[in-house]
Amino acid sequence: MKALYQKIRSLQGKNYGLYKSLADRTWDFGDFVLEFLHVQGDPYAPASRVIIKSNLLMLGFPSEWGSSFERRLALSDFLYRKLSALVREKYPDRDAAVVFDTAGPEMLVRNALWVDNGELRACLQVRLPGDGRKIQAEAAAEILTMVLPDLVSAALYNSGESKPDGVEPELVEHYRVLAERKEILSQLEERGLCAFVPDGAVLPRASGLSELPMEGAVPFTAPAEMAVTLVANGREIRGMGIPKGITVISGGAFHGKSTLLQALTKAVYPHIPGDGREGIVISESAVRVGVEDGRSVRGTDLSQFVRDLPGGISTKNFTTACASGSTSEAANLMEAMEAGSDVFLIDEDSSAVNFLIRDVRVRRLLGDDREPLIPLTDRIREIQNRSFILVAGACGDFLDLADNIIVMASYKAECARINGKNVAAGLADSVVGSAAGTVGVDGAGSCVGDAAKIAPNLPAFVEPQCRDFAEYVKPLLPSLRPASAVERQVKVKISGDTLLQIGFLVSDTSKAGALVDKQQRFGAGFMLLNLCQNAASNNDSANGEPQKSATIMERINALCEKIKNVGFRNLPQGLSREMSLPRPIDIACVLYRMRDGKR
Question: Do residues 515 and 586 make contact, with C-beta atoms less than 8 angstroms apart?
Fold first, then answer.
């Protein structure tokens, strides 16, 4: 620290550009070291970036906290939030001298703070002070040799060594959530479940713009017919187990059916203690599928849901720069299948009606020759080894087809059918029997209807195969270049909140998978940039012989596993700005929407 202080003081009043000399070496502070990743060129340029590195033992944490992925994620996320709160408290202004990003309720792998190989790395932004083009050494020395060490001391050291577990109780809670989640995920498959919602979960949010739990909300209670008790981390947890298959969530407006679906959608990521949804667990490959007017589609086989278009246009290799509502939803579903999703979440309010259902009278009027669309109701029972959870308050056709029906009434869940058997016969009769007599209940209590009789004979459903990565990205590579003459490398940018730009390539990520913030979008962008730049070499060995080709998901999964182990530090430009790790399937969703932004 003394050496850095003396170095800064020697720069007093000199040209601002000499700040860059601070990046020539590593600065030792005793328990940690500081390095400059980037030094701004003038006081008005984007802030400088520094990285702080320290051994966990030096910070007072037992070595076990650097072992399993769950422990490392719990520690990283806990310290990230602690450091973020302290920085905001000391520097609340937007143009603060020290900047450290905030986070939502999700626990994610972030490059801003990560633990691997027993070492902690924290990246912060620092605005180096200047008077015009002159260095203000005294102010800079205060920030770098006083403020930063104080922040490290207050946020990153273990202050719970005297506690029963040797660390702060809040950190133990972080780990408990992750450990229980891991155990419950393994039990879902054993129990034949696709999701689990524990008793006491708080599903509603404070507002449509907030991720905070609603005060006074009705805690979730599992209906008796769907209640299961799981054992995780040494304790029993009761809740609603949603069986695999087709599950319909119904109920009146404002009674909580979309709130339940949204909570399940968010549950693909672990949440912090106190969020209210931290105990909800769903398959980590679950994807929300809905309409996406105007999205780009390239080379996707839609023939399972869209017959050949007028003029003999085939839909087996469908490409468009501006998909319609039903076509976009069909593409979203087929691409999610291709990427390996085994649970699909659908809300009728955000879907194309003609993709979900086809009215019997319209079917009889038009026939199949004049309607290229094949509704989901005609296909859903054919799709094997996949589960659907649908919100249907008006599309009653899905009640005929559902294995399970959950009715939400005043935010309380009731079970109307479980594994094909009606358990609330009166309720089920009154709901499904209202469709002009098309559906009834047989003697065994199972629902029977005319949907299968009305549906046309269709070719057997064919599962999509994941495409070859190198072949898929080959048409994109000419656009993967710096977007201006002054840029020396391909930049990743975000326009607005969701339009991702990689060189001249763009991808509208507003409805791509379950991306939660800009950090994840930058993460997806930089990872795709790296994969695309290496696409040619990935398929060529050192002796010039082509290697076995790899699919899109094989490439993405391999890179995600590396980042889960060592963070973003080995990814080119991986520490250039704040980013976090998306799910592999979300990265694939971003890639499927990628197109040349100039066209």
Answer: yes
Mean pLDDT of the chain: 90
pLDDT band of 547, cuts 50, 70, 90: low
**Amino acid identity at 399:** L
> What are the φ and ψ backbone dihedral angles of 479, each rounded to 5 degrees?
-90, 0
Closest alpha carbon to 531 in 466, 593, 584: 584
DSSP, residue by residue, 134-153: EE-HHHHHHIIIIIHHHHHH
Phi, psi of 316 (to 5 degrees): -75, -25
Q: Which helix (H) or strand (E) element contains residue 198?
A: strand 193-198
Quick check: 426 pLDDT over 60?
no
| φ, ψ dihedrals at 260, nearest 5° | -65, -45
The answer on pLDDT for 546 being more than 60 is: no
Report the alpha-carbon distance of residue 549 to residue 474 in Å, rounded: 13
Residue type, 18: L
Task: State the Cα angle at 223 between 222 and 226, rounded to 5°.
Answer: 85
Tokens encoding 36: 């400059």
Under 8 Å CB-to-CB from 495, ≥6 apart: which residues? 501
CA 461 to each of CA 154, 176, 378, 380, 401: distance values in angstroms, whole numbers, following the listed order: 59, 42, 10, 9, 17
Q: Which residue has the tokens 């399940």?
A: 264
User: What pLDDT is recorded for position 424?
Assistant: 63
Compute CA distances 134 → 13, 18, 140, 590, whole Å: 5, 9, 12, 44
Of residues 547 and 80, which shows the higher confidence score?
80
Q: pLDDT-based confidence at 483, cuts 50/70/90? A: confident
Amino acid letter, residue 598: K
Check: CB of residue 119 under 8 Å from CB of residue 156.
no
How many whole angstroms separate alpha carbon 46 and alpha carbon 48? Answer: 7
Distance CA 490, CA 503 (A): 5
Query: Are residues 185 and 281 in contact, defined by beta-carbon separation less than 8 angstroms?
Result: yes
